[in-house]
Amino acid sequence: MTIVPGFTGSLLDRADAARHDTALVAAMRADPQALLLCLDDLLPFLTDSGTLGWRSVPHDPHEVELAFLGQIAGRPRFVALTPGVSALRRSPELFAVITALPPAEAGTYAAARSLVDWHARHGFCPNCGSATGVFRAGWGRLCPACGAEHFPRVDPVVIMLAQHGHGEQARVLIGRQPGFPAGRYSALAGFLEPGESIEEAVARELHEEAGIRVHSVRYMASQPWPFPSQLMIACVALTDDDSLVIDHSELEEAKWVTRDEVAAALAGDPRAPFLPPPPYAIAHTLFGRWLAER
Asked: Which pLDDT score, from 0 to 100, does residue 87 have?
């Protein structure tokens, strides 16, 4: 069984070539079939069938600035670039909506959310400080003063399970942060630093947070995470020593769990020793794929 990460599988045809053709983008905006994603701040509206809500695109190009997301089933799709929003803001309502969305719809929402947030936070040129303007149909900002071009960024994050032992005796390391819901544990994670490979970041983060040395890092899956715009890179690494030295500035607690305990957690068994991450999180996918290797 293929375990698909959350926020992937969007049906968007991103139509990159169209982004360079201002006349074509204007024609698509004027197309009666064009649709605008319905957002309240960054919270999506859902239809009665549980899918993303869309509405007609405003005819006046000066009424609202739009970014061209791409096409779905041949219909142009846009999102409004709203100043002042922040993808760092989250709420139980938002995560309830995300949980209800079909995976492909969540992927489309993730792309739109990250793009809108990037524009809201990059109104000025980091090179010279001048105000920038939208270009490439919303997939870039251009500085009129120094000519610098700026494009939406994605921050890479490693998220990983350290494995001790092999086969049915294998255990993996999980941890929790103080802000997690009661009983929830997840894989350890951290941002890649400049001049660092994925494998090096996995080894560094596990040593910094849990005091263990790992080797044989292997890639498992990746996921766009739109809070605000990260690429989660899921890995498993092996360790020969299960002794832990926890950095409590990073983790509230960390512990080793068996395959059976991970399986019980993912199955929702009330006797499981921890509450797993939600299904849309890459850590949930990582647990599932690690179990499938047995």
From this structure: 65
